[in-house]
Amino acid sequence: MAANGWQRRRIWAVLATTAALGLTVTQAQAASGGSSKPFGVRELREQALLHQQKGLSAFAETGKDGGDNEGEEIAEQADQYAEARTSPGIVAPGAYGAAYDALSTLPHTTGSWSELTKLPYDSDDPRYRDVNSNSSGGAGKVTGRVTGLAADNHGYVYAGSANGGVFRSSTGGGHWTNISDRLPALSTGDLQLDGRGRLWYATGEANTSATSFLGTGVYVLDNPRYGSFSKRDRVGGDELESTSINALRFGGDKVWAATTRGVWSHSTRTLTGAWKLEFAPNPDYLPGGSKASDPSAAYKNITSDIAIDPKDPSKVVLAAGWRGGDTYNGFYAEGKNGWERLNGLGELPTKSDDVGNVTFARSADGSRYYAIDQSPAQTASNPDSGLDGIFVSKSGSPTGPWTKIADYKQLRDSGSALTGSGYQPGIQSWYDQFLTVDPKNPDHVYAGLEEVFETKDGGKNWTVPGPYWNFGFPCWSIDPTKQTGDCNQTVHADQHSVAIGSNGGQPYVVVGDDGGAFRRPLNGSADASGHATDWTSLNDGTMDALQYYSVGVGIDQASRGLSVSGGLQDNGQSILRPGDRVMGSNFGGDGGDTIVDPANGCNIAAEYVYLAVSVTQNCAVNDGSWTTDPSKATTYSVAPPDNATNEARFIAPLNADIKDANTWVAGGRHVWINTKGWAIRSGSEWSGAYDLGAGHTATAVASSGGKVYAAWCGPCNNQGFTRGIAVGNADGTGWHQLNLPADGTVPNRYLSGLAIDPADSNHVLLAVNGFSRKWTEGPGAGVGHLFETRDGGATWKDVSGNLPDVPANSVVLLKNGTVALGTDLGVLVRPAGSSTWKVAGENLPTTAVLQLRTGPDGRLYAATHGRGIWAIDVRSLC
Questions:
Q1: N or C: which terminal CB in the chain sees fewer CB atoms within 10 Å?
Q2: What pairs with residue 141 in β-bridges?
Q3: CA dihedral sign, ordered 341, 344, 349, 354
Q4: Is the peptide bond prior to 715 cis by the omega test (within 30 degrees of 0)?
Q5: What's the longest Cα–Cα distance across the chain?
Q6: Cα angle: 771, vertex 776, 781; to 5 degrees
Q7: Bridge partners for 120 per DSSP
Q8: DSSP character for 739?
Q9: Strand (E) or helix (H) holding 378
């Protein structure tokens, strides 16, 4: 969902591509006659058909049901990810800062973490062109999502990653160095260079995506070419803590910030003193307001951008609005009675139904203002696109008059890869937008949606220099010797940020998307289709911003070394085998949970989304020969039945029994058991052990010797949030729901992780996500993120101790009795026999750790959602 590139929204693109190639699905599956088709059609087609009538609404929070389209399903993941951290409430200012400060007072254990994934990751690796791979799509070397970019005219480029902080390059991109690791928040909302050359870093990614983390405010670096950010570089106080920032804009001596809690401003001359709240559409819903506890509070003050008149910086236009639609959506300017809604802007819509996520850009000479507008009404009703259009104000004033210069149909017909019904340009315009103008040509514009668009005549004509992928175009080939056939490299899908810079007088444009950063000359070359011939990937491995959901480790039978796999946001499944200098991608789409055979690292089960599980026993090594001989495919779709009925979380839990590697547990509405291990070949081979109940979906599963625990929620949002735990046996016997008392013994929050003591299956640890009731409303008051039972769940004890109040994601009980806990701020450990916590080792960035797994080599592996995979010797944690 939200912001998850190759996931189910890719389904429609795949189907459209197949149709464009003149293939029926049956023909594509048979792959007879050497048909050239994109990968994953078997599974992706199944996903599309099964979910076509069971789409999840992106607008459940506001009670709006937009019908069934891909954009809604993508948005559902955003809600699910937020649910884990906030249900049944919201986070107030200071929460993250307080947790970080508490963490900083804890001692560290000995030992240091080693970063395993700081090397190039090739999404087109020719070794892995099996049926469920996206290799040869054309994006090449990738990393995690880049949501902020800034560039100067001396070759310096600054890239802000989704949850890995800011990286600096002095070579126009590449050879990156992190310059923000001393900050408490590494989530990027925006990056801007001001007129004095200072670098402004707005923390808190604000695209309302699945994995957008909150920030701790805005920081300024006086000398970004040489310095690095520290906590003392923060502008103002804690006013912008625990919020997200869409954009920073400068006018006169002010900097303006469009945030998810209104528009704020601050002096650019004096950086001390509080931020001023300029405008909040519904101030009663802000923290401390009379309606702050309302379930819809988080959606009532969202602002997306600010346009400042270049001739008069006192004239400012604000774009406000929740992507799903609300009565406050619209444009505002200051009038006699304060901030007033604007009307009569020409062709730029002003009705609340037609103003959603908005991005502004102005030309250097002040003669043009441009805007992208997403329409909530169209997002809800049009299965093809949510884009209202791209607009220009030729007066240079943000009050217009505005003229529409592109709609989604015009962009679709300009060389887009997204031409099929159900997935066309702007389908995710609530999530991916950028806009910039050539400093020397006010009619030369780059626009980012799912793809990169360009016009050189003010919008009369458009091209697509960065198509979504190369699948479907005549130049594409599966042949590994041709990499992407005769096609040139393109960018990764889903655009978020853009900057124009130069080096040695040679200007270039840099774009940031779900696959990292890519560069081309500002006035680059293109083929006859308008696709660029000169993109360069800047993802050389030195910016390890990969966003892992999971990690799995096993012995590589060929070399006796270790293979490391992991599921990634929008970048499939990575695999690092002994001797590799470049990681490969052996599964496409989003990579969710994973199981890897500790004794054989090529035995892999990988989740796509919604329990769309696939399995391979040869690491999915394939040169694409399955396209002419289907029997040569070595990846098999084995999705449990809840995948077909849409009764599973977007990233659903999948785990192996800690005593029997061939017994697997998968959780949707039901608890599913597979006893064939990696020999499973069909989804029908799962057996249903237990029905968690209508509306309930598993959030964590664990099994030991056939005894299974399954945590669940449902409803899972802040409107009536409930949770529970069921216990039973893998053979389907003995199942029952635990009685979790309403006294807060186990808080009414998202249950995110389970760990069973291998010596006693009645001894279980439970990790609880979300901040405490100190910041959220609902039953179960009290701080608590780790709970323990020694009687199979009949009674529980809060064993959080001095654990900082930070969302907990994953818990592991190590062999020596040490407890390791993965949190949104790193890894904490409690040594055996101790009641106090320590920070695990040195070196690990302060980023979210979504999963911990032990490897057969005696190391603990951490899947971070923003800085790759790390490992540490368990012995150092004692």
A1: C
A2: 122
A3: positive
A4: yes
A5: 76
A6: 80
A7: none
A8: -
A9: helix 376-381
Burial of residue 835 (number of CB atoms within 10 Å: 0-12, 13-18, 19+): exposed
Can you tell me the distance from the alpha carbon of 170 to that of 149, in angstroms, rounded to the nearest whole number? 14
- Give backbone dihedrals phi and psi of 699, rounded to 5 degrees, phi first: -110, -20
Q: Are 600 and 554 a contacting pair, CB within 8 Å?
A: yes
Distance between CA 419 and CA 400 in Å, rounded?
A: 32
- Is the CB of residue 314 less than 8 Å from the CB of residue 296? no
Place of tokens 């609530």: 430
Q: Do the Cβ atoms of 876 and 814 come closer than 8 Å? A: no
Which tens digits make up the pLDDT trace of 340-382? Answer: 999 999 999 999 999 999 999 999 999 999 999 999 999 999 9
The pLDDT tens digits of the residues spanning 213-230 come to: 888 999 999 999 999 999
Question: DSSP label at 209?
Answer: -
Cα–Cα dist 876/878, whole Å: 6
DSSP annotation of 373 reads E
| Nearest CA-CA partner of 57 in 319, 381, 300, 314 | 381
Edge-first strand listing for the sheet containing 664-667: 654-656, 664-667, 670-674, 687-691
For residues 15 and 48, the answer to whether their CB atoms sit within 8 Å is: yes
Omega cis (within 30) before 747: no
Q: How many helices (H) and strands (E) does the chain have?
A: 8, 57
Which helix (H) or strand (E) segment holds residue 642: the answer is helix 642-645
Check if the beta carbon of residue 711 is closer than 8 Å to that of residue 725. yes
Q: Verify cis geometry, omega within 30 degrees of 0, for the bond prior to 578.
A: no
Whole-number Å distance between alpha carbons of 824 and 99: 10
Q: What is the pLDDT of residues 518-566, one digit of tens each?
A: 999 999 999 999 999 999 999 999 999 999 999 999 999 988 899 999 9
Please write the tens of the pLDDT for every residue from 799-846: 999 999 888 999 999 988 999 999 999 999 999 889 899 999 999 999
533, 847 in Cβ contact below 8 A?
no
pLDDT digits (tens, 9 = 90+) for 735-776: 999 998 777 789 888 999 999 999 999 999 999 998 664 444
Report the amino acid identity of residue 435: L
User: pLDDT tens-digit profile of 125-177?
Assistant: 999 999 999 999 999 999 999 999 999 999 999 999 999 999 999 999 999 99
- In the predicted structure, residue 71 carries a pLDDT above the cut 70: no
